[in-house]
Amino acid sequence: MKKYILIMAAFHSVLYSQQINEFNFLRYNDVISIDSTNQSLYYKAKQITISKKSQSFLFFGAENRTQYQYFENENWDENLKDNNGFLLNRTLFYGDLKVGNSFRLFSQLQSSVGISRENPNPIEENPLDLHQLFIDVNFRNIKFRIGRQELYYGSQRLISVREGPNSRQAFDAMKITFNKKNFSADAFYSYHVKNRFGNFNDKIGDDTKLIGFYSLLSEIKYVNNVEIYLLNLQKSKSAFNTFSGSENRNTVGFRIFGNQSNWFYDIEAAYQFGRFERKNIKAWTFSVNNYYSYSIKKSIQKIGLKAEYISGDKIQTNQSLETFNPLFPRGAYFGLASLIGPSNLIDVHPFLECQLTRKLFFNMDYDVFWRASSSDAIYQPNVSILFDSSGSSSKRIGNQLGASFNYEFNKYLIFTIEGTWFKSGNFIKDVSNGKDMLFTAATLTLIL
What we know:
Elements: H1 2-16, E1 21-22, E2 31-32, H2 41-46, E3 47-51, E4 56-72, E5 86-99, E6 103-115, E7 126-139, E8 142-149, E9 171-180, E10 183-193, E11 204-220, E12 224-240, E13 243-260, E14 263-276, E15 279-296, E16 299-310, E17 320-321, E18 345-355, E19 360-370, E20 378-379, E21 385-387, E22 396-410, E23 413-424, H3 426-431, E24 437-447
Parallel strand pairs: 15-17
Antiparallel strand pairs: 1-2, 3-4, 4-5, 4-24, 5-6, 6-7, 7-8, 8-9, 9-10, 10-11, 11-12, 12-13, 13-14, 14-15, 15-16, 16-18, 18-19, 19-22, 20-21, 22-23, 23-24
């Protein structure tokens, strides 16, 4: 690992001087300089000019993430031992054909593999597959996009690209986007793409459908930015606590975010209704994320507090289901360890972010978790049941302390080392072996 880091750092210190690209979290939003005077090898590999007259260009990009992970008492069980840990590697490569401002064809391959990982799941082990393939057609303020694509909205509480786990997630979708001044809106009809073991077999998953409308109003007096959304999830089979069946769930919500001087705020609320088999869905969530930003020797620091209430089912025998479904949230919702997900949960979460040097950053957070309802299960980030409610009446899940160091060699190469310690509460002790868990990880990300 150390040798690999040094080689990559030396290689990319040469590339860094080019300053050609602006990389984005969603790679189809990369900004690439169209500069015919730059004849560097990297530039020539990055862009092919098809026709200057029609402004037709073919762009390429890639990234590789190599990650070492180690668990002690994984799943709170001392019998699950792996003294050496394991490696996860994800490679993404894209080609982007643009013809003027009116047409685009974007494709991206994804390879995710696990090395020495015992019993990997399809999100950890998906050797080679088509991650994205879509076309864009633009008419003034309206864009039509159709094909396999990543969806990303708002705070990623409900729809995300699932960056934390080894495989990012995609949707087979049709989407219309409208942009004008301080207003934008998306309407989409999509099917979730389920990862499967093997090569080029991640097919349309017609058992999970997501339809939605997402809008953003910006530069609003007093509140800065407002998002309003309406989503519909249809699944042929879902499971909540001790029940399973088909699900047709609507989510209506809003988010207010912005800043007043050095105070930054992010407030979101959502209500869910619909049907789960013979039950009526009545679920909701409310979350607040506030932080204060200040400077020490020209380095930006942040101190903040997050808190959220995410409803759980209170009475198992009635005709209502009150468990909130987070749909397709960030995979690493409460840190890379991804121990529990945002359903039936109360969370209080102070955090600190520090810039130690121009390239070195330190983050620390502390989570305290309770079940919102003692009659409901706790869930994984993908909404599958982690532990049902039958073994305990306690609400206290536990406390989690996380810390990370992030070193940015340059915009092409980033190294992160992090750790998570989870102290088991009474509920975890009642339903499992209840051992405190330790998780560590080291990640090297290379972006081209």
